[in-house]
Amino acid sequence: MDTSYPREEPAPSRKRDPSPTVIAVGPAAVPRDHLVWSVFNTIYMNLCCLGVVALAFSVKARDRKAVGDAEAAQRFSSRAKCYNALATAGSLLLPALLAGLVVTGALHLSKLAQDSVDFLSYQLSMGDGDED
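Now predict its structure.
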């Protein structure tokens, strides 16, 4: 038997149990349904019926949000946003492109008309000189 004093006891292990990690989770972000934008595109800028398609997805997103299915609401909201962006971009770019084509066409036609007048006036002046 060991009677030596002081007895040495094994050192306590320095391993600590990890404390639980707490992450504060707030309320889930509610996806937007883009309904007003869809109605606007449906009424005013309905390029290739994209506004109607966007409106359908907006209504589906609002319904899913009311039921509490945030994942499906987010998917429908994303699709509504894409179709709204396409409808808006197409409705703004197409008239601008057409206006540009009309302006360049008018400039080209005026140049052609001026060249025709110059050619005809030259031909008429040549014809007047031959009769003398």
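The chain has a mean pLDDT of 84.
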